[in-house]
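REVIEWER CHECKLIST
Item 1: Sequence provided? yes
Item 2: Single chain? yes
Item 3: Sequence as submitted:
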Amino acid sequence: MLPSLRLANAHKPLIRFLGRRQWPSKPEEQHPHPFAPQELKQHFSDFLKKFESSSSAASGGPTSAAPKASSPSKSGAKGPVYQDFWQAPPRLWKHDLKDWEIELVQSGGASLH
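Item 4: Structure as written out by the authors:
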């Protein structure tokens, strides 16, 4: 008797899909977030220009022979800016953590003394 009751009250998912997915043929035009600060909305086109120029420079891919570093910008950055860590000198790469550094991170930064 119990199995027939379960069949009568079959599980019905709460999510209902409206139909088949339809993807747009071309991507949506880039725009700032609706709740972005007004200053960012006004300078969004400048950001897009910088973003496109940096992505085109980085599209050289891993097959490029020489590491590319951009020149210092007007924002006051000193020295080259590297796209990937392996383009930087080895002294700037990640290093192995010491035991006391791991304990410090795991304790949430609380003093060990």
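Item 5: Key structural point noted by reviewer: Helices lie at 2-8, 38-42, 44-58, 99-106.
Item 6: Recommendation: ____
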